[in-house]
Design brief:
Elements: H1 2-33, H2 39-49
């Protein structure tokens, strides 16, 4: 009985410690994995690919 109680307490402590560690480290990992591009690269991307036009388009369905 006492060993089961100790095991449950130990499991809870370990689980809580892992959760706390992940909460602390996750923002750091996310910041490392996001891509950082320079202003010049962003301008080049916008120049090459441009933004989508805002012109309205029409589509028609034809029955054959």
């Amino acid at each position: 009985m006492a060993t089961q109680l100790i095991e449950k307490k130990l499991e809870f402590i370990v689980k809580k410690g892992v959760e706390d560690a992940l909460k602390a480290q996750f923002p750091k990992m996310r910041a490392l994995l996001t891509l950082n591009i320079s202003i010049e690269e962003q301008k080049e991307i916008e120049r090459l690919y441009r933004r989508p036009s805002k012109k309205a388009t029409r589509s028609f369905k034809l029955a054959v």
